[in-house]
Amino acid sequence: IAKEVAKLLEMKAQLGEDEGKHKFVLKTPKGTRDYGPKQMAIRERVFNAITSCFKRHGAEVIDTPVFELKETLTGKYGEDSKLIYDLKDQGGELLSLRYDLTVPFARYLAMNKISNIKRYHIAKVYRRDNPAMTRGRYREFYQCDFDIAGQFDPMIPDAECLKIVHEILSDLQLGDFLIKVNDRRILDGMFAVCGVPDSKFRTICSSVDKLDKVPWEDVRSEMVGEKGLSPEAADGIGEYVQLHGGLELIERLLQDPKLSQNKLAKEGLGDMKLLFEYLTLFGITGKISFDLSLARGLDYYTGVIFEAVLLQQENEHVEEPLSVGSVAGGGRYDGLVGMFDPKGRKVPCVGVSIGIERIFSILEQRLEASEEKIRTTETQVLVASAQKKLLEERLKLISELWDAGIKAEMLYKKNPKLLNQLQYCEDTGIPLVAIVGEQELKDGVVRLRIVATREEVNVRRESLVEEIRIRTSQR
Amino acid sequence: IAKEVAKLLEMKAQLGEDEGKHKFVLKTPKGTRDYGPKQMAIRERVFNAITSCFKRHGAEVIDTPVFELKETLTGKYGEDSKLIYDLKDQGGELLSLRYDLTVPFARYLAMNKISNIKRYHIAKVYRRDNPAMTRGRYREFYQCDFDIAGQFDPMIPDAECLKIVHEILSDLQLGDFLIKVNDRRILDGMFAVCGVPDSKFRTICSSVDKLDKVPWEDVRSEMVGEKGLSPEAADGIGEYVQLHGGLELIERLLQDPKLSQNKLAKEGLGDMKLLFEYLTLFGITGKISFDLSLARGLDYYTGVIFEAVLLQQENEHVEEPLSVGSVAGGGRYDGLVGMFDPKGRKVPCVGVSIGIERIFSILEQRLEASEEKIRTTETQVLVASAQKKLLEERLKLISELWDAGIKAEMLYKKNPKLLNQLQYCEDTGIPLVAIVGEQELKDGVVRLRIVATREEVNVRRESLVEEIRIRTSQR
């Protein structure tokens, strides 16, 4: 029913659009948005937190084009390939907008024969998905990726990726969170011992992936009904995917009579144990859950996978904390670079992607609800005049301030009223006003007004820059 | 001949591509490039210089989607519209990649009914142009735009835009530069008094625009031969477009028997005089030239136009400084927002765009030629061990450092050799090594090695963070 309603609404929306087609529609494309100054101020705060974490971990930064050769993206995203934006064939190469930053990263490594790098990349990606803008799902959205490529001892880079997610989510103060961890090899081993035929691994995996949204019963009937899995196999999976825990669960599964017989599962569980040991040293196991229901959609993962979810606020009086959505995800993909390398040379990789739009949405809503007034400029001083005919003096003074590195503005009026100039400071949060007047010019001083206290002091012109610096130094 | 050679090379290149078509081509799309860590380090330096200038002038920042509705871009770029990238019609809206940041800005203002803003926007734009990558001409490239929108007293915002170009080009130390200034109204007035028919203003203007690349004789024969202008009119134009200078030239033209009779030219010259008075107060007229040959291609300019060029280095012993290319440009466009507003409500705008790719190219080449080693990370300390079996101790220590905000790395090996760890610091410029060993652990200290001097000191574990901060505080 929900699907039908959505379809009808979509049709209605399209009709609405068609009606207006004779006149120009003033809008951004579906699923995209502008960022105004206030949104940008929030965005920069979040980017700064994320970037400084990535830099703290010694990452370099790269950038790649927004579009790639179409064939670079072909065969990397499974079913989701239909969501890729293609460019019109205008002669020359066939191009598509990037769908994520991981595939361009792998292409970059193969093309430049890089076998060893730790890099981050913050950029927009594009998906022709059904937008849900209030919940932060867009067709154009930012990803913030951190990846470690190279042949290293097991689980050390993997543990660092989880540490990074933990640092960023703690730093941003989004409320309580949980990082679920699993391993593709454990999933595959589990499918094997439950009697899932090899050919059905992928499709059964994508059923399991739905467990965070729909109850087990529905997933089971999809497996048995739509996908033709035997009820016994489904029930076997059903028992495993309910499990989540920490080291003790890993130990128990290592002793599990069925799983312990499977080579892949054993490998995965052994590495999971190592991972948890490292996470214990990092002191972050409290927010990490080994969860056998975590599957993740993308085809290219080969080992550890993980996903961070925000938990509902405790003050909402729910009995059990419920997840309100994924804000970060990632995993190990040891085969992707090899798909691009002419000689199939492999470069093992593990990485994490921070889902920034959802975080923006939360912070934006929180800021709207709060009283906090966010400044959208960093201007330290407004150059103002108390009398008429002082435009030239204002221009001279502001030029001096700019050249000294002071952030300064003035009104673009020949003869602005002092009251309007002061009001502008109130509106925009400028803390100081440098007022020039006939008398001040004669005396070689500038009247400096502190907006918050309305205090005014005369400052000698040659000391003005220093005085402004001191008075705005806390920012 | 040059054209023919270029054509042949292009054909050869295409043949080469065709030959390889059966196998996968590992490349970025034509006219685009990846930015590796070194290029990104340069890019961030330049962006920081530009952003801090924009912020110094009190600008807010916005962002818009990388694609717009196709019709948003239609009819804004004249002949250059053929260079717009369209997206494939995959159902839904028809979309195009943005061609510049100015038209999306105007769309943003009209859509949000903003009549007053000072904003900057740094983002990539797209043109299906013939790339010349070594000279910094790409199909995907950055623009850094600063614009002032609003109804203000004449020439105050216009003067600030020129001050900004002056500040940025001085700050980046690219060598000597010149900012050419003209006004569309002066050009149109000049065409009128020379007897150019109204219908030919636009096309004659685009001929004049070529004067920075080809000599007057060629431009003249294009006007007379291809565009059917009378020889007398062409010669009239020829006399004017040779003129360049400062206030004295403006005064002279205000007395010019022909120009002074034309309303548009008189208005433009009056404003130009005012502009030069303001620029004199800013102390920057030394690098500004009122130049009647400056025309600029885009259709939407309505008043002042300007373009900054780098001058050839003096040490290359040329008699006259020659321009090696435009690095910034802009002007006044009072009609563009009105094209989007349903009621045609106008918002006067003036702005400047910094052509960053050319600046990158220059700085990249300069850096390659120099001995300077550019760091691509900010890592302060490498956490190392002198003996085997200390992975866990390294993990514990690095976690403490990260949590204290120290930028720290370690090698992802269980038992790395000390020599390899020290070599890593040499290679990447990490200034400090924190070495854990059996003895140090017993004594509650960490051995801190200063890479540059090879000096080593024992630091108590609880003082390590502080010690690292002090020793790396200059960065």
Automatic annotation (TrEMBL), chains A, B:
Annotated keywords: Aminoacyl-tRNA synthetase, ATP-binding, Ligase, Nucleotide-binding, Protein biosynthesis
Record-linked InterPro entries: aa-tRNA-synth_II, aa-tRNA-synth_II/BPL/LPL, Anticodon-bd, Anticodon-bd_dom_sf, His-tRNA-ligase, HisRS-like_core, HisRS/HisZ, HisRS_anticodon
Binding site for L-histidine: 100-102, 127, 143, 147, 296, 300-301
Source domain of life: Eukaryota
UniProt GO MF annotations: ATP binding; histidine-tRNA ligase activity; identical protein binding; RNA binding
GO CC, alphabetical: cytosol; mitochondrion
Database matches in PANTHER family: HISTIDINE--TRNA LIGASE, HISTIDYL-TRNA SYNTHETASE
Protein known as: histidine--tRNA ligase
Source organism: Climacteris rufus
Origin organism lineage: Eukaryota, Metazoa, Chordata, Craniata, Vertebrata
